[in-house]
Amino acid sequence: MSDIRIATADDQVLLDKEAKYCSYGDTVHYIEPPRIFSRCEGSYVWDTEDQAYLDLQMWYSAVNFGYANPRLNNALKKQIDTLPQIASQYLHKGKIELSEMIAVDAKNKFGLDGRVHFNVGGSQSIEDSLKVVRNATNGKSLMFAFEGGYHGRTLGASSITSSYRYRRRYGHFGERAQFIPFPYHFRGPKGMTKEEYGSHCVQQFARLFETEYNGVWDPKVGQSEYAAFYVEPIQGTGGYVIPPMNFYRELKHVLDQHGILMVSDEIQMGFYRTGKLWSIEHFDVQPDVIVFGKALTNGLNPLGGIWAREELINPKIFPPGSTHSTFASNPLGTAVGLEMFKMTSEVDYGAMVMAKGKYFLEGLQDLQKRFPIIGDVDGLGLALRCEICGPDGFTPDKATLDYMVEEGMKGDMVVDGQKLGLILDVGGYYKNVITLAPSLEISYPEIDLGLKLLEQLLVRATQR
User: Fold this and answer.
1) Where does 371-411 have alpha helices with state H?
2) Using 50, 70 and 90 to split pLDDT, how confident is the model at 395?
3) CA distances from 417 to 39, 412, 413, 420, 444 (A)
4) Residue among 445, 364, 439 at smallest CA distance from 41
């Protein structure tokens, strides 16, 4: 175990300025002193001391295609020299072609006509989806969402995010959610298979519609008080929890029976993170709305958006001016998004991501066999989880994971003569889950390196 790291004199000057001038409202210092980074490339970032860190969380899955991806960077540079900016009420080729690409793909996969509406990021796109949903359901403001779900921290998005702490100081301004248990099999009732537990969770949800006295359904007029169910097909901040494959198909059947829309939040799991463009594709259902962001531009530009069924978003029901953002559909973002789609059409990203994910998961399973504090590992594509527990392999152990994160950021581990740090993300209901979202371009040697670094952290954690 290394000594506590001290900030350099230059870094300390900057940290002192940050302490005085920067809002802490969007800042969380997971380690002390915080690192200040100076460059990035591929799966690595470097701090101001030129210490390299292997990044296994890639900016919360925003940088799916690797830091400083040359092809995507060049698309941005080219657009800067042609049409770098134009007001969003005016048309440009990139907006139209990117919308077409997303809408045609949805038609091919789901058999549904639809349209695309852009905004500047994930939370803002969630807000737009709420407008679409409320408009299409005569102003209904009640939603279903999952325990452990995360949809953002704007006022509307925080109202359907399960963590009360995100809205405690602000109250509610419209939307309210009823939070439904997610089929978290590792922490579910014992004695059920994963599929049985998925069906059990759907059956418990369906009970809400049995009589009017359950409070959500009026059988006399056949109407629900709730407009939509917001789902993350794979829970993100909740700990990369992967549901049984039968779950969403059975859930969608209940929703369709009662006229409730399904909104698929793909902000963290979209763009091949799970081996498909949209993670909902794994579950054989037709979403009514898809919300996306982050990796559309590989983190180079704040561009997100929604796809919605034609019946919900056509100009007659959602006319001009229904919602607006000055920088929505900006040409820099749409240029990178188009290039991303072209790039992923030239290589079978689905097969590549699934193969790498299988290899990475096998490595995690090997670590689980050797370290009893790993209670659960799972993965779909390159969305992987490793749950850190007490010696019993079940009791959540946040403190040990916090220790591992801090040790990884010291940058003092050595593999094959190379000194490295390791960047991990913390998630889960008990903040005891390593949520792994490596670059989709990660090499097999880099996966091996990541597993070796994880092993070193586990050794430190169990020997401290």
Assistant:
1) 398-408
2) very high
3) 22, 11, 10, 10, 19
4) 439
Last residue of a domain, one of 315, 331, 346: 346
* 107-133: pLDDT as tens digits: 999 999 999 999 999 999 999 999 999
Number of Cα atoms under 13 Å in the Cβ half of residue 79: 25
Structure token pair of residue 321 = 């001016």
pLDDT in tens, 154-186: 999 999 999 999 899 888 777 789 999 999 999
The pTM score is 0.97
DSSP state for residue 425 in the 8-state scheme:
E
Residue pair 11/5 in contact by the 8 Å Cβ criterion: no
Nearest CA among 307, 286, 311, 312 for reference residue 296: 307
The domain total for the chain is 2
Q: Classify residue 238: in a domain, yes or no.
A: yes
Q: 444 and 320 share a domain?
A: no
Is 393 in the same domain as 409?
Answer: yes
Percentages (nearest 5) of helix, strand, coil residues in the chain: 40, 20, 40
- Report helix, strand or coil for 251: helix
For residues 257 and 405, membership in a common domain is answered with no
Using alpha carbons, select from 454, 334, 382, 335 the residue that is nearest to residue 54.
454
Measured between alpha carbons, how far is 353 from 300 in angstroms, rounded to an integer?
A: 22
pLDDT of the residue at 442: 98
